[in-house]
Amino acid sequence: MDIGSNIRAIRKRKAITIAQICEETSLSQGFLSQVETNKTSPSIATLENIANALKVPLAYLLLKKEDRMHIVRKSERKVTTSGSEQLKVEHLSSSKNVKMMLVEFPPGASTGEEPHAHEGEEVHVVIKGKIYAEQGEDSAEFEEGDSFSWNACTPHLVRNIGDEQAIVLISVYTETDQQPYA
Fold this sequence. Notes:
Helix content is 24%, strand content 32%. The protein is built from 5 helices and 9 strands. Residues 7-61 form the HTH cro/C1-type domain.
């Protein structure tokens, strides 16, 4: 864990000097310098004092870089295709276990000829158009603003049943890093 580098980065971004932190926390400049260079590991109580001086939650100091906010600008989205109908998939953002994407379904297009299953849980929101969704013996039609969810281990299918393109926002949660719609 690189707590010291986190502290230094936050301090510099906020234009706070080591002396200012030391004044507020009663820590010595030498000690704080060793903390920032990861040469010593402070106690939780000391980290809490530093976090308070930096005006950040203690938990934020403990986050690994990959666990912090990840930003994907619209112009930087990864775009792939999925399934036999080559549905356009825009990858909005993801974390270790959650992936969010916009999927475009041309009229009549579906996620495949037959229902398919995979690991995870899915939540769908129809952004535009009219779709039909089927999972096992359950099926329904959905329009703009409607949403549904399911456990993806049961075979399922989504099809555009409207006359215009449908867009569906899909969020997929899995226990592992392996995700559908790659």
